[in-house]
Sequence to fold (281 residues):
Amino acid sequence: MLTRTIRILFVLAVVTSWSPDNVRAGVTGGIRAVTRPSADVTMAFVQPGRIAAVHFKEGDSVKTGQVLVQQDDAAEQVLLTQLKAQSEDTTQIRASEASLAQKKVDLAKLEKAALSNAATALEVEHARLDVTIADLSLELARFEHEQAARKYQEQKTRVENLQIKSPIDGTIEKIDVEVGESATTTAQAIQVVRTDPLWIDVPVPLAQALALKAGGTAQVVFGAADKPAKSELGPTRLVTTEGRIIFVAAVADAASGTLRVRIETPNQARRPAGEHVLITF
Fold:
């Protein structure tokens, strides 16, 4: 009975500390943290080249695999077409197969003739060597065909490297290149972020963090900055959502006595990352 009473008093204390009036007054039992994108990818080209096309603008939503920026690949496409034709050409293989078949027929005839002394042993031996050489020629033709296929795949990869594709579903945050300019490998070209869901890295006191595990829940309060922005409608409205613990660090920060806990929270309202929030567990 006593344990149950203590739990009820604890819950009431937490709820009281999280009332909007207390948050605005700066009296809270929560931990202050900052939201960030759940994915933030900055990309650059792997080789220098002239920008031929920028297919999106800042703020556009993109899907995984969509081409965002394209370098000029006219010369590379010509070579790719040539290598593709070579990789698909089997003329040398078929010619070598036909030659081998003919050599085997010639050998069979000479071996039959040798039985009646119509062909010498030397002629038979030469015919056998011709079969061996023709067989090796066929192996070489097949090997060269495989090499041509590999060269085609290599060139295909080079052509694909002239494109920047989105690695995630997200929003284009920044574009640093324009059509016609030369791109380098050291300068970033485009940045894509995913803000739904948001991630929040929370420095939780070690004693409290030891009880937290991945899969647990947390309350996330938006609009609870130290000095809430005011408008004609009054102070910023508080919004509370439920987040999910997705990571608990294995190493604590000895200086602050905290452990990093990562929370993932949905963001269908498309709130910007970088917002101050308050967290309770």
